[in-house]
Amino acid sequence: MNLGKALFVLPNLITLASIFCGFNAIRVVAQDNPSVDAFYRAAILLLCAMLFDLLDGRVARMTRTQSAFGLQIDSLADIVSFGVAPSMLVYKWVLYRFPTPGLLTAFLFTACGAIRLARFNVITGSSEGAQAKPSKYIVGLPIPPAAGILISLLVANHAVGGALGDERYTVTLFVVTIVLSLLMVSNIHFRSFKDLQLNFGTVFLVLFAIASSAFVWQVTRPPFVLVWLITFYIVIGLIDAVRSLAQRARHAARPPHTDDLAGS
């Protein structure tokens, strides 16, 4: 077998493995009244899909086999494993209690994920499949961390014996799903961590993430650490957005410089 063809196929096989995990997760919860264990197994499958999603791009770059085909199949994998599958899981978990609003909310997550992926491909892709130089920020919440919140909540739900699926948390999970959906199609800039520099801010964030994760581990259950870390990532993006708006407001409110007035 030609080595070049084998190297081209390898990252795409990893991507297909991600799709299989998403497909299998949907199959696991497709039954009537799935158990807490079934949701847990489906969530673990989606965590495996995330692992494959991290690997396929790195393997493609290592083997120099990036292509337009790889870019498109990766997006298709993301919409299955991080769009449709998490939507189905959260619907079968809690949103089904309000059939029509639950269906629309679950679909909203899938639809916003599809829009997010399409926008990302248009902004960063090219006809040759090459992507623009990695930026410090990404416009809109990426679909993997958006799905990661829902997936990690299901893992944490198993750790507490299904308590998070209690009826009293239904409205909260509706709100969480809607907010995540809207963040994906927002213009908020989230950090990509692809252009990190070793400075005080970076060191502080890393140390805070480690210390806060240790605290969450001690006061709750270990699976809640994943919920916290992804939430922390989203909070950083929201804080950056508020700071940017505040800076623009201060700049707009600043009186014109006297030299500018004289020149006019």
A few lines on this structure:
Helix content is 73%, strand content 2%.
Jot down its keywords.
264 residues, mainly alpha, Four Helix Bundle (Hemerythrin (Met), subunit A), 73% helix
Explain how this protein is built:
The structure is a single chain. The protein has 264 residues and is an all-alpha fold. It has a single domain, classed as CDP-alcohol phosphotransferase transmembrane (TM) domain (Four Helix Bundle (Hemerythrin (Met), subunit A), Up-down Bundle), CATH 1.20.120.1760. It is built from nine helices and two strands; from the N terminus they run H-H-H-H-E-H-H-E-H-H-H.
**Largest sheet: spatial strand order:** 1-2
CATH topology call = Four Helix Bundle (Hemerythrin (Met), subunit A)
Unreliable stretches covering 5 or more consecutive residues: none
Proportion of residues in helical segments: over 70%
Overall mean pLDDT: 87
Integer tally of domains: 1
Could you say which structural class the secondary elements and strand pairing correspond to?
mainly alpha
